[in-house]
Each structure stands twice: as structure tokens, then as C-alpha cells.
Write the C-alpha cells for this entry.
Amino acid sequence: MKFVIDMMGGDSGIEATIGATKEFIKRHPNVELFLIGDLNALETFKNHNNIHLVESKTVLKMDVDPLTALKEKDSSLMVAIETYLANNCDCLISAGSTGALLSAAIFKIKRIPGITRPCLITSFPTIKKNKKFVVCDLGANNSNTKEELLQFAKMGSIYYSIVYQEENPKVYLLSNGTEEEKGSPVSKEAYPLLKDCKSINFKGNIEARDPLYGDIDVLVSDGYTGNIFLKSVEGTAKVMSKMIKDAFKKNVLTMIGYLFSKKGINEIKEKMDYKNVGGALLMGVNGVVIKAHGSSDVRSFLSALENGYKLVEVDIVNKFKKELA
Amino acid sequence: MKFVIDMMGGDSGIEATIGATKEFIKRHPNVELFLIGDLNALETFKNHNNIHLVESKTVLKMDVDPLTALKEKDSSLMVAIETYLANNCDCLISAGSTGALLSAAIFKIKRIPGITRPCLITSFPTIKKNKKFVVCDLGANNSNTKEELLQFAKMGSIYYSIVYQEENPKVYLLSNGTEEEKGSPVSKEAYPLLKDCKSINFKGNIEARDPLYGDIDVLVSDGYTGNIFLKSVEGTAKVMSKMIKDAFKKNVLTMIGYLFSKKGINEIKEKMDYKNVGGALLMGVNGVVIKAHGSSDVRSFLSALENGYKLVEVDIVNKFKKELA
């Protein structure tokens, strides 16, 4: 297995990607790594078995224009993409700009034939033990057509069935009401296409308050709304975890209370912490390209690496192509 | 103060509205109430000072078409609207269909001159003590133009300054990134209008994960995305509260832990429970029209009544008209 890691993208600096990479090597010593970045900063990996250091001179800004990004050949992202192609790698991971990663991946690694627009897809925790659902698109796109929503539904369905070995995943369309006639202009147009599509198990509209209960498998949305959903859930979970922490710190009695209940409470925090979510797969391009959280810390970037490992292991791209054919 | 209450709308049945109304009467014995509904079911209010019972024969379905709704003159909502107008009331509250309430209010109570599209607005809790922010539009509209987003920004700003006595509230636009060029097609168009508007204190874009930290006053969004935001936050908060409850129930030790920490934990649940949110004001129509949560229970409907009381007390409609002029 060959991984390319953009060590420089992301808001949290190279310490986060270095820390995560070190832990990843321990866990998976047989993976061959191409680490892209400032060679001085990466010196700690020198003379390491299975690791190639590749120099990049610049770092793309998070708000870079995608076309500008493509021209900046010395940037860590563009060097990563070229390294990926030159070495026939299995997985590319970056915490850099979503727009730049998306356009570089589409332009260089190319889309899988038949796919109009790739989407970002990842798993969400639910209240049920070990039950997750996936959401697509989480923000690779800014606005979408009904045909693109249909493709997202198919991609999400295939992703879920491969990753969770579920034959006939339940697909829902994110909406402002459960009735068929509810929705945004584009989701209303997409509804009949999803309903008529024989390759997915479409169950109708679902409101944003319900997916976390764990009764659905795939949540389909345009990229803009999917991004709002992702970040609303993430933000609320983070704020509530902080509130719980503060509530236990109040006085000696609450601290005693914490001692008795911390196991369960920490499990909740852990489960709902989006640092553990593992980045999102850019589904529809011809390779395993993972977008890690822009503000990835060690744990978060490590989850993205682990997610990439798992997706390469299940051979997601080839299985996806076979399903499409 | 004169209130009209649609006792029949809502999914939870008339028990919820009756329970809430009884408590509301205790708290505010001087408010004159017009209760609309099935007279047999409302018998408990018979011969009560300050209460008028008005019969309605049908109940609109939650998914009723707004035009059909307008024609169903015997429905509790349409009787409520006529009662409101005939008695020159101050406030109308319904937990029925949003679309029907919106179109009936616009058609019968009318918009305030200058307002193109009313919006649903309500307050959200934050991690900071006693600090709230408001969101508009929460779902009165399904898609909006840039000019409508500008009007929402103005309405939200005026609402916040009246309700929270804050002179220059900080207005943000909900977006998928903080940079100026981020956003949905319509929010990108709206950005320069908000930036150039001298009557609001526009601070730029904000991502959906950040408002709950309590540093903003007004969050502006198109109605569809605002509805997704509302329900994502609501759903996540509810699921996490349930998880916490379950964690404490695990065994004797965790139950002891709960005894020591329950005050703080219950405060969090209380704060983040959207049953306490109090319904949303349909801002921009010429009266205090409150949309209560469709699945309102006693507590939730009571919050909506209290919210209406507060908004009438601060004379929101006349103050809003003055600000607009």
C-alpha cells in the first residue's frame, strides 16, 4: 500500500501531520509513505524504512482560487498529486483547501467515467451502538443539479454497502419536511429521480433533526446544505461536550459525581467528537483521495489516515467502478 | 392584551394546548383569550373570566397546500385569523402548518409596508450564560433572493435590538466558509448588499459550527438552509441529552454520579431543549403571529405563549414599523 501525505496543508501546522504520521507508521509499518513538505521540518523521518521525503516549496492558502492552485506547481498539494501519479499510489491525504484539492484531483487524477461531480462523503455517529450513517455531499460542491443529487445517492449507497457490508442501504434526501412536496428547489426536482431509480433503496425525505437517531444509512444533500448540516452537528456536539465538562467542574460535589460517571460521559464525548470522524473521501475521482479536516490536530489527521487505510483495504475504487458498470 | 390561540393545530393534540393555556392563564390572568377549537374539548374553559371560546369545525393537515388552507374557512387556523382581525387582537399563536399560517397571515393580516417576504425568527441558546442569538429565516421561505436576505438582516437586527436592548447587534451571514467569496449562490450575491447596508452592523460570513459559542447576535440565512440549521442543532442537542441520560442509568455507580452532578447536567439539558425555545415570530406581518413547534407539548406551547406575551409587551410591531420608516 502506497500513501502520499500532504504534510503542509491544514491550519494546525506541520506538528499535527508529523505526530499523526508517526503513530500511523507504528500501526502500519508496511505502508510505503511519500511525505510532501519542507525537508527540514520532515527531518525526523529521514533514513526511515518505507518513507520517501519529497520537497515542496510553497503552501496553498486555504482560500486559494482553484485555478491559481493548479498553476502553483511547487505547492505541497500539487507536488503530492504529481507524486501520487508518478508512483502509482493508492491514497492521497491533505488537510488543505477543499476547493484546491477537488480541482487538482479532478484535473490530474481524473473522474471515474460516468461521474459528473465528485462528492465528499464521510460517516456520522448515531445514538445507536456501532451504527453509523454517511452523508454526501459534505461540501465538494456549492450548488447542484437534480442529476448530480441522483449520482450522490448512488455513490452514497455504494459507499455504504462496501464499507458497512449492508446490501440494500436506506437512502434519504435531506429536506425541510418529510412530505414528498417539501424541499429546496433542487431537492424537489431530485425527489422523483431518486424515487424511480432502481439501483437504490430510496425511502423519501428526512428532516435534519432525525438522522442521528440511527435509522438511516445514507443522507443525500447538495454540497452547500450538506456542509451546513455537518458543521451544525459538529458545533452543537462540541458546545454540549464543553458544557458537560464545565458542569462537572463546578464544585467538589460535581467533581465527585464526575468520578462515578466519567466512563460513560467520556464515551459520549469521544463518540460525538468530529476529530474522530476521519476526514471525507472525495468519491467519484479515480483514487482514494481524502480531505482531512482543515483544522486537523494529531488525532483528527490520524483518523483521516486510518480512514484512507480502511478504504484502500476494501478496494473501494475498483468495487465502485464495478458497481457502476 | 388580547390573544387568539389555535387550540387544534399541532401534532400532539389538544391536551398540549389546553395544558399550556391553563398555566398561561395562571401566570397572566389579565390577558383576554380567544380559544379556537372544538367546543366540547374546550369545555374546561367554560365560564372562565377573560376567555372566549370560538368554535372551529375542521383542522388543517400539516401538509395542506397553502391555497387550499385559505379556502377552508371552518378550520381552526382560518377561524383564528378571522377572530384576530374582528377583535383587534395583539397576538395569534398556532402550532399548525407553517405554510398555511404564513399564507393566511400574509393574505389576511397583511405584510408591513415595504416587506417583501416575512421570515420566521427565534432565539437560540449559546454556551455563554444568558447570551442568545437570533436566526432568520428559519423556514418561512423555501428559497430567497439577495434582496430578501438583506431584508432578513434588517429584520433580525431590529428584532435583536428591541428584544435584547442591544444598540448595534452583530449580524452574520450563514455560509460554508468565513471568506467573503464563500457561500451558496444567493448568499454570495447578498454579501455585498449586507456589507454596504448602513443600518446594520454586518460582520461577514460565519460557518454553521460557530454561532453557539455566543459571539454573534443575528444569523441571516435563506429559509431552507436556516431550517436545516435549526433542526440539525435541535436534533444533535436532543440526541446528546438522551445519551447523557443513558450514561447515568448504566449502573449503581453512575447513578450515584448522577446524584452529585444532576443540577448542572439538568441545566444543560434545559438550556439546549428546543421545547423551551418558544416558537418563532413571523416577522414582517402586521401583528404578532407566532408559529409554535409542530410537535409542541405543554411546555413547548407554553414557551410560545410566553414568547408572544413578551413580544406584545415590548410592542415589537410598532417599534419595527418606526425603525423601518
Q: What stands out?
A: The mean pLDDT of chain A is 93. The longest helix of chain A spans residues 223-248. Residues 1-115+284-325 of chain A form a domain with the Isopropylmalate Dehydrogenase fold (CATH 3.40.718.10).
